[in-house]
């Protein structure tokens, strides 16, 4: 009965309420109800460890830190390894950043007392080189840890690219060598290179499951091939098109390799005016899909219209396609012909010719298509309704900017949205931009 | 016992459909129509550029003229509003102050202060809704006490509310005979100040003139000239729509020179006469409904015009870069499409909404990755139709901080312009330095050879700046950043999707 009342007090009070007043209330209840001595001597400080630990896990770090200065017992619990498994270091220079930064004293304390406990670590840095360098400094000190997840995240500009390659790779290899249990690594936009990947592989080949390394210009096809060859548990991979090779796809499809779940490829022209891209053989794609039938292959294209010639001339098992810039009508036509596994298609822009034919072919041949987004294109209302009729209810995501749809003799925009809703089996409107 | 009333104009600078003024006239034996020009207050709560001051002064002149025609007059009193009120409450034995209810936090605070003053000095305060279609409280109530955060949800709530209140009747000279106007001598002391009095530029070069009369004329033209009103199809964007619109109405709604309810009902009447309508005329009255949407969200969202502490806004690590912001603001980005738009904005105080999308995207999520709050402040200073909720709401939208579409798109400063106006007439008009470039180069003049630049009489890097960013690089990177932010702040992103 008394304990229940104690619990009620805890829930009703804001976490920041002073611990002292909590203690006083308990004593007051105790004296009011004339409880025996053994009850009144029980106080917050003598709650069992697991209970305090559980409560601490709900508190944000700031409140936990305040709680830790209440008594020795709470202080001990504050430093239990379990509370220091996950940490996100936020590093920014106040002069140039809107977001807060992890206090340097806290960083010091973590390195001194908790470096060994860290398992899921990420570094969020702003656009300044100093922040990226600070991240590298912290990384170099994580010597006795067994990190499972590592993320290096640039929130504004790719500031890690301004750190010297030597400084960066030596910091990174500290973690690669010492952790020996890395499972998930996100290091996009960094000066990662082939030798560091070799070190990664030498120490973590059994545990590596996820590797995201888009826009790491110092990595070569050979570097990533080394990863695929040795890390047979790799399930998710994100990279740039230029390091994708037939050998890589075959390595990922070897018998020893687990099923690949997610392959993300960014297609960016490396040099200005680059028009030629290497091709991947159909057999290589086929091998991958045969080995991992459920794999999602996501391609992000950031090219100009003239640069698409190489792509989709043969059947390609891509599932998610995103065109960040304009895409040519011819390319969309080829997609309709050669991408039977397509699930999602997003076109940010196109020319001034209606895309009716291309869309209808996509509806006919891409039977798995469930999501589509169109902006800055042109499609006649009639053509669009035909497209939607053919796809039917399988289109769970249909995001079309209002300006895309050209009214014609058959349909006005108002009528169109009713027709489309009918075929989709739910209420649908085009995406509207506010009229300012 | 009839009142002695001061009717305080803040926005709502009109006589048609003015429920508060009508209420004042019907309840009083004398009404003093007052505009308190509290410059200190205004400049502390918003940025106001010269063109906006001119528009305000023109609107006040027009109001003065229209009141005179009905036998009354407008009294423009300069000074801090609280002390002005204290003085004149006593001088004129005022028993009632009437004013439009406004939703901006600073106007709400002003109203609260006036009410406090009323309790102290013994006068009543009456405020009515006049600036929006609906009383936003009713919208909030129907949505369970919170604002609908998507436009679709908002339209649904409106469908439950039914039509807005009809405009109130027009005022007549009789109203001002039955209820006495102020003493004629006062008009002399409290005339509308001239630009020179406010130390702003002597003349406005903008083709937009302020005032209710001008607004009503434009309304008539808007409803007749716009062929699309009759055929109910949305206009495709044509190059001419970028030029100063003779039928545009947005600045008149912002100042309250035009009543939104009047416009709503004029449109509804036209629509009702059509033969095959089956839906509420969403596309016709789109401008009004979007306005109402942002007003509603803003009225119930704390810190709506900021990122910090704003529950619907993604917290994004924008770059602080005063130099780049300055280049954008002063039309020196090196991208003719962007610079022409910013030039028109500064010179005329109005740009087409697609133009706003282009420059807003460029500043924020597209190229410069600078905070939308900075862009919002520039727009507030330069746009004649600057409006607390609409400005902030649109900036959040265009910077992809709130009100998301499923997919983030970035407008290319070359392609988007070229698509809208292939011959570049707009560029040639507002950036005459570039006018001799052939159309194929005018959106990206840095791609022309040295010889061609010499022929056009404009060397890039000398007579006109180089592009300030590599758009391709910048936008690719920013697309990834935006994706990352939305994934991390998934819950906030879901609120307004």
Protein model, in words:
The complex is a heterodimer of chains A (436) and B (497). Chain A is built from 17 helices and 14 strands. Chain A has helices at residues 2-12, 19-32, 37-40, 49-58, 61-68, 72-78, 104-114, 129-140, 165-179, 194-204, 221-230, 246-252, 282-291, 329-338, 356-365, 381-391, 413-424, and strands at residues 86-91, 120-125, 149-154, 184-186, 210-212, 236-240, 262-268, 296-302, 320-326, 344-349, 371-374, 379-380, 397-400, 405-406. By secondary structure, chain A is α/β, with parallel strands linked by helices. Chain A starts with a helix and ends in a 12-residue tail after the last helix. The model of chain A is unreliable at 1-37 (pLDDT under 50). In chain A, α9 packs parallel to α10 and α11 (221-230) runs parallel beside α12 (246-252). In chain A, the strands form two sheets. A twelve-stranded parallel beta sheet of chain A has the order 1-2-3-4-5-6-7-8-9-10-11-13. In chain A, strands 12-14 form a two-stranded parallel ribbon. Helices cover 40% and strands 16% of the residues of chain A. With 497 residues, chain B is α/β, with parallel strands linked by helices. Chain B has 25 helices and five strands. Chain B has helices spanning 19-27, 39-45, 50-69, 81-91, 105-121, 136-142, 151-161, 173-178, 184-189, 212-225, 227-231, 250-255, 260-273, 286-299, 322-329, 336-348, 353-366, 372-382, 388-398, 415-420, 425-430, 439-442, 450-456, 471-488, 490-495; strands spanning 3-9, 28-37, 75-78, 96-101, 124-129. Chain B has a five-stranded parallel beta sheet with strand order 3-2-1-4-5, sandwiched between helices. In chain B, β1, α1 (19-27) and β2 form a beta-alpha-beta unit. The radius of gyration of chain B is 24 Å and the shape is globular. Classes of the chains: A alpha/beta (436), B alpha/beta (497). The interface between A and B is large, with 50 and 54 residues.
